[in-house]
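ok trying again, last paste got cut off:
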Amino acid sequence: MQQFEINNYIKKQITEYLEAKQCDLQIAMNDEQMNRELAAILHKGFPTMVQKFYSLKKFETFLWEKREFLYTHIHARLEALNRPKK
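nice, full thing came through this time. structure:
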């Protein structure tokens, strides 16, 4: 999980998705359909080799089953992108 990075493009995609759904990350992750849609957005940001090794279907299942743990992790990564770099 420490190698799981969210770049600015994926952050923008997630932000736009959440704004369109008028909800926050936690609500989206606790809704099964929105969780799958978030998984697809995040999966697009993976390196190609990781995408091939870790299919979207497998990642959807992982994101749904581990959503409590992953919420904290994903939220922290998104917040880190908001902080100015030193």
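cool. Residues 8-82 form one domain. The chain has one domain: 8-82.
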